[in-house]
């Protein structure tokens, strides 16, 4: 279920410890995280932009639950802007640091939740990443993502 073998072939990922099983395509959504690994799903370069832009990123997210009635993973997520990073084999190198990160939090309900994040300073060689946020070195960090949309709000 790797990103490169689906209709998201032009997309990439950033995954913890270079563990590509941590980004899974499921029926109708993406599962971010597997085992104790997490990561981001990364857009292609936004080459359609004709200048520096403000981008609105909209998506739906849901918490991961381990089995029926099991505990949910942490609720922290992130939207990253990667700029000028080279992609090899559908992934960003593990050492790649985002130019900008905006954090968001799921509420405690086991349901889909809609998010809108506004990013400034996005350019034609930027890539947008959406995923779970690793706050510490242990524990599970998994969630589901769906309905990802990017919209140019204005040119700066």
Can you describe what's shown?
With 156 residues, this protein is mostly beta strands. The chain is 0% helix and 46% strand. The chain has no helices and ten strands. It has strands at residues 12-15, 23-26, 29-32, 39-42, 53-63, 76-83, 100-105, 113-122, 126-132, 143-155. The strands form two sheets. Strands 1-4-9-6-7 form a five-stranded antiparallel β-sheet, with no helix packed on it. Strand 2 (23-26) and strand 3 (29-32) form a beta hairpin. The radius of gyration is 15 Å and the shape is globular. It starts with 11 loop residues before the first strand and ends with a strand. The model has no long low-confidence stretch (mean pLDDT 84).
Main traits of this protein?
156 residues; globular; five-stranded antiparallel sheet; 10 strands; mainly beta; single chain
């Amino acid at each position: 279920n790797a990103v490169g073998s689906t209709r998201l072939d032009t997309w990439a990922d950033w995954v913890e410890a270079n563990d590509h099983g941590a980004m899974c395509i499921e029926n109708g959504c993406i599962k971010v995280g597997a085992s104790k690994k997490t990561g981001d799903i990364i857009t292609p370069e936004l080459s359609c932009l004709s200048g520096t832009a403000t981008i609105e990123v909209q998506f739906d997210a849901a918490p991961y639950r381990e089995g029926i009635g099991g505990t949910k993973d942490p609720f922290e997520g992130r939207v990253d802007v990667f700029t000028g990073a080279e992609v090899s084999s559908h992934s960003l190198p593990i050492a790649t640091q985002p130019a900008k990160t905006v954090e968001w939090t799921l509420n405690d309900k086991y349901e889909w939740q809609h998010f809108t994040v506004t990013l400034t300073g996005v350019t034609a060689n930027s890539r947008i990443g959406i995923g779970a946020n690793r706050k510490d070195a242990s524990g599970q960090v998994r969630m589901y993502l769906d309905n990802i949309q990017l919209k140019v709000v204005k040119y700066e």
